[in-house]
Amino acid sequence: MFSATVSAPTNIACVKYWGKKSVALNTPINSSVSVTLDQNDLKAVTTVCVSKSFKKDRLWLNGTEEDVTKSKRFMACISGVKRLATTKVSTEGEVLVDKSEWKHFGVHVSSMNTFPTAAGLASSAAGYAALVAGLAEVFGAKETYPGELSTIARQGSGSACRSLYGGFVAWRMGKDHDTGEDSLAQQVCDENHWPELRALILVVSDEKKDTSSTEGMSTSVNTSKLLGYRASTVVDERMRSIEKAYTERDFETFGKITMQDSNQFHATCLDTYPPIFYMNDVSKSVIKIVHAYNRWKGKVAAAYTFDAGPNAVIYHLEDVADELLALMLQYFPDDKFLGSLFGSSFVNNPQAWDRAKAFGLDDELLRMCDAKGRARGMGGDVKKIYITKSGPGPIVLSKEEALLDPETGLNCYVKGVAGDGGGVALGLFGLGLIGFGFVVLGGAGLVLGGGRGGKK
Amino acid sequence: MFSATVSAPTNIACVKYWGKKSVALNTPINSSVSVTLDQNDLKAVTTVCVSKSFKKDRLWLNGTEEDVTKSKRFMACISGVKRLATTKVSTEGEVLVDKSEWKHFGVHVSSMNTFPTAAGLASSAAGYAALVAGLAEVFGAKETYPGELSTIARQGSGSACRSLYGGFVAWRMGKDHDTGEDSLAQQVCDENHWPELRALILVVSDEKKDTSSTEGMSTSVNTSKLLGYRASTVVDERMRSIEKAYTERDFETFGKITMQDSNQFHATCLDTYPPIFYMNDVSKSVIKIVHAYNRWKGKVAAAYTFDAGPNAVIYHLEDVADELLALMLQYFPDDKFLGSLFGSSFVNNPQAWDRAKAFGLDDELLRMCDAKGRARGMGGDVKKIYITKSGPGPIVLSKEEALLDPETGLNCYVKGVAGDGGGVALGLFGLGLIGFGFVVLGGAGLVLGGGRGGKK
Question: Are the beta carbons of A12 and A34 closer than 8 angstroms?
């Protein structure tokens, strides 16, 4: 039995991927580019364990076993990495497994993420990147050309290919539509290129989205005339401009394209029939406040982007970090009542929170933001704030971090109990409020702590 | 002194107008088509009074005088209709005013509408159509070609040109970009062509929108790549298909294009930089419930459309009217508390309301709608419901309906007092709720009754 545990980052696109060229190959109708986020703040952790004694391939996701025998995507990742496997040799030079033997090994996988699943924070990107990186580590996989592993991760979840690299990463759509071999990720700049770049994430909802990305893309490709135009005519120029901007650390251009492309992606969702909505009124308030902030600044100092969910990611530079967080806390504070009940882990960085709370915001700025219609001091709409930055690709972790038992190869990860308890309590609280005619919070699945959880 | 009082209808487009080809001529970047609504339910009323003794042109809007000396649009309508004026002759054949004399006459105008102003219910369309129709009546204007008066109304407010005709009315964008002479309205079918067609209007907000149509269009034309593509490539085919569908009373095609085009218009607003939002979460719930209803019906039985505001107009046929209203009242009921305070005028047709309340909705339908995430029985988000249908163009009213004093030519209309009082009370109520951390209602400008008001 051999095993490896890796962590992998999530990534948030600045030029968005929306629409498949080939469903079978999971290739896109346009190229895209994203910032890989720091795994100290958000990550997926995956342990892969392989053994000849495993009768079938198994997966535990956040501690619960899923039936993967039906999952073509999961199986495509296993078979894809197995094809690149090399002979395993001990430090003494002894052959432990000949590469021809790997096909007889069963695969167990346990994966968890430290942030909400399927709520538009690219949990599947981080998850599939960690899966492929973990498999590659166990099998000693060697690429035959740069980016080959990313073509495998792409088959798991499109945007997962970008999470195999740190920094600013492009997914080139490719030209070989028969094999998808050249539809791969390419690092534009590494994670040390722009150390001042920051991302502020406002988790507006941690509930699962009601239209999955795959289903939404398919409907959009079939019904939105605007999406086809975007993919064929708008995106290439944006890719060139934003890669240049990132390379030159030109935040104004980087930020403007990021906002425009987020809005255009959501516009194509709205042009879909029936229309798809991922942003809500809270998301819209974030957008309006960011534009008010930029107008007050006299430049693009903050740039929002929204994936397939209502959560905002706001890119900015370090020099405005305290001011921007202070501003967001004015309009999207933590819920004092719930905070006192469950303990506050509202912001992932307590020092930044303290600095922001002490920050003196300009009166004119507040007046301009107030005019956008969002009331100050109204808590509960934003569930959690992450402050993060760009980070590296997948990292191999120590055996102590393993989520599969080293003796049995069975799952040993249990989802955090504090978070689950909070969800139940909020569910009851939400129902209570319905009696007054207001629904403030969704009842199910709310994870306040986002804690790592423990092991059995 | 001569005077005339007319009423004019509003219209709600099925293929939307968004974007000006020429700001000076007020011509559009694409053709559009709309249903003219029944003036028994929503209308603008305008009295025009002309006299050589009037020193300057004056306008009272909903009882309050506005300075029109700066308004190019208002002045363009007056000078445009004056150019088509004819000699006024008494019933006895006596010349009262030679047409060459009209240029020495000052114009007084008083105008009111029976529905919220500038909230995306085409109040300016009805208002400018009434102005041009009133001026044409006073001056005995004669068109030199069909639709010429509509080219004048167009200069007041683009969509006003369509309100000069009843039924289903196209605005042809025209080819003469130097004069705009052929950018005019044309009746596709009259108001008796499709007597079963109904419109259910849900007034989600009666506050003034924060981005005016003119300003929004200008930003969209300058920044949205999708808007240019829509105008040049998508709209013409939609115009042909929907005119054919209306002519053949094919609701499925009519309804599908109506929904698609509403969504595409709002998509181009979202693609604008900075983005423009007219729909809110209540609008989105309406959309989701309409699609659930259609899926349950197994056909397009209801078709929403949204102008530049959050209010929904749902076209449907008479045979589903009770069911559709009953369904909407499940998810968007009147606010019981406010209703009891201010008296209920929630639905403009009490008989239809009674029928809908007695209607037994299917359990499976309700289950499908519940799954869309909107809670049942939550009042207050919809302020007022209008049930209406297609109607005729402008109508000349009797002298008893005049809004200008026949002796002095000065305004004698006062805006309804009941509505204003309600607004103040709601303002206080809204502030009270802020103390609990919830803002349910905007404080200002809420008109519950929409009453006609009285005269001084």
Answer: yes
Q: Is A233 within 8 Å of B225 when comparing Cβ atoms?
A: yes
Q: Which of residues 281-300 of A touch B (CB under 8 A)?
A: 281, 284, 287, 291
- Alpha-carbon Rg of chain B, whole angstroms? 22
Closest Cα in chain A, distance from residue B204 (Å): 14
Q: How many CB atoms lie within 10 A of CB B15?
A: 27
Q: Do A230 and B226 touch (CB under 8 A)?
A: yes
Distance from CA of B54 to the nearest CA of A (A): 41
One-letter amino acid identity for A40?
N
pLDDT band at B69 (very low <50, low <70, confident <90, very high): confident
- Pair B289, B242: CB distance under 8 Å: no
| Averaged pLDDT for residues B161-184 | 97
Q: Nearest by CB to A438, which of B230, B281, B438? A: B438
- pLDDT tens across A10-19, in order? 999 999 999 9
Tokens of B163: 């309100």
**CA geometry: angle at A21 spanning A15 and A23, to 5°?**
115
Name the strands in the sheet holding B11-15, side by side, starting at the edge strand that comes first in the sequence. B11-15, B32-36, B168-172, B184-189
Mean of the pLDDT values across residues A242-269? 98
pLDDT digits (tens, 9 = 90+) for B276-306: 999 999 999 999 999 999 999 999 999 999 9
Closest CB from B226, B287, B373 relative to A264: B226
Q: Using CA atoms, how far apart are residues B102 and A289, in angstroms rounded to an integer?
A: 52
Q: Which residue of A has its CA nearest to B269?
A: A267
Q: Do A45 and A253 meet the contact criterion of CB atoms below 8 Å apart?
A: no
Number of alpha carbons in the 13 Å side-chain half-sphere of residue B352: 24
Residue A22: Cβ within 10 Å count: 14
Judged by CB atoms closer than 8 Å, whether chains meet at B268 and A267 is answered as yes
Q: How far is CA B103 from the centre of its chain?
A: 31
Residue of B nearest to A440 (CA): B438
d(CA B6, CA B135): 9
Q: What is the pLDDT of residues A51-89, one digit of tens each?
A: 999 999 999 999 999 999 889 999 999 999 999 999 999
- Which residues does A275 contact at the CB level (< 8 Å), separation at least 6? A269, B263, B287
Tokens 């607003």 belong to residue: B269
Q: What residues contact residue A334 under an 8 Å CB cut-off, 6+ apart?
A: A344, A346, A347, A379, A382
Q: Which residues of B228-248 are buried (b: 16+ CB within 10 A; e: fewer)?
A: ebbbeebbeebbebbbebbee
DSSP annotation of A37 reads B
Q: What six digits make up the tokens of A175?
A: 């030209």
Whether the CB of B274 is below 8 Å from some CB of chain A: the reply is yes
Tokens standing for A385?
A: 């704030």
Domains of chain B: 1-193+396-414 (3.30.230.10), 416-456 (no CATH)
The span from the first CA to the last CA of chain B, in angstroms, equals 21
Sequence-separated (6 or more) residues with CB below 8 Å from residue B359: B322, B323, B325, B326
Helices B350-358, B321-331: inter-axial angle, 10-degree rounding? 80
Spatial distance between the Cα atoms of A318 and A195, rounded to a whole number of angstroms: 9
Placement of tokens 């609280």 in the chain: A429
Q: Is the minimum CB–CB distance between A340 and chain B shorter than 8 Å? A: no
Would you call A271 and B264 a contact, using CB atoms and an 8 Å cutoff?
Answer: yes
Q: Report the alpha-carbon distance of residue A7 to residue A21 in Å, rounded.
A: 30
Is this prediction's ipTM beyond 0.95? no
Give the mean pLDDT of A136-161. Answer: 97
| Phi, psi dihedral angles at B347 (to 5 degrees) | -110, 135
Peptide bond into A406 cis (omega under 30): no
Residue A414 neighbours by CB distance under 10 Å: 16
Position A352: which residue type?
A: A
Contact A268 B268 (CB under 8 A): no
